[in-house]
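Box 4.2: Ligand-aware structure prediction
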Amino acid sequence: MNTSVIDQDGEDTIARMRRLQSERRARSSAVMAGVLSAYITTPRDKILEAELDGLIDSFLLAQQAVDDGLPRQVGRLREGRALTLTGQSGAGKTRTLERHFLKREEFNGYGDRNADCILVSVSTPSPCTLRLLGMEVLAALGYETSRRLEENVVWDMVQSQLALRQVRFLHIDELQHVLQTRNPVEIGKVQDTLKRLMQNRTWPVWLILSGLPEIGRFFADDEQVWRRSRHVTFDDLILEEDASLVCRLITSYAQDKAHLSTDTVMGDSFIARLLHAALGRFGILIEIIQDAIREALLRESEALTVEHFAAAYMARSGCLPEENLFTAESHWWLIKPREGLVHKYAGDGVKEDSEHCGRNEGKQPKPRDRRNP
Ligand SMILES: Nc1ncnc2c1ncn2[C@@H]1O[C@H](COP(=O)(O)OP(=O)(O)O)[C@@H](O)[C@H]1O
Ligand SMILES: [Mg+2]
């Protein structure tokens, strides 16, 4: 039976409902696009900005010495320096660096192979050898070849291409892949090669190295380079220090970008669960908030609530409903956010995680908020 009624514009009821539905969806995907692209500035940006200023200043100082024709007198001044940015996976290193590289005028043209940018960025291949890392840098410099180049040839070419393309700053992301080879010879070769790039007499290069915390010590055994390195760390967030930052993130994304009210997701007990779900990582926290907002928009809700976070968390972790750390009544701090999927399939013969929520109740102390002992 056809129940639709044709209105004066020739649109029947069902067609109108479909049109309204797609308008609604278009609105919410526009909102979501704004939520996903928004960059949130925190005090960490100021620290990184100051360190990048310092790195650029040291380059300009060296350049000045060369321009003044005093290369012999200035000695070490002419050598490049290194800046490391370390933090756990999901802390926000890659996105933050990219943001600063794109924003700074000194790095105009960053990311455009046809522009003459003085900064080039690469991601360390995995698994990594000195040769493969060199090939990656060559490709980023716009030098493509299908020939298999030997390790020493690759790095000679890297050095000459850096000079040819006037590249002064080299960013290497995920440098921990070098350490993960667990091959001391290969690690030593990468260390020596990077040091040589910095100390090259005709074209020294300034390095920005990012990755997991262990790369903060990449040059620790080399006194010369160590003294010429600076370090920025992106620490995990903790409730007693970062609760107000978490509130600001929720407000910026949910209220400002998605026009959702947030009254029920601002309390300390909720924020403690949210931080635990995100393993304290700034970037993961942002992603969970974004996912929860998507849930709220899909359900056409006017407020962002715990249920939206629970749904987002369930989709991310694959946890059982009773093990959702946003809704678990007790012992939520024993739930391990990364192990939901392992536990879910435990009954199907997959090894069960003996430390998972429920079985070791009471073994770990509940995290305490030191502000309210
Ligand atoms: N300041 C920020 N504002 C908005 N989103 C961010 C910010 N920092 C990180 N993110 C997001 O967090 C997630 C993880 O960041 P990423 O840079 O990949 O972390 P890492 O490189 O430390 O593993 C990404 O989705 C990224 O877009
Ligand atoms: Mg990264």
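In the box above, the bound molecule is adenosine-5'-diphosphate. The two ends are 67 Å apart (CA to CA).
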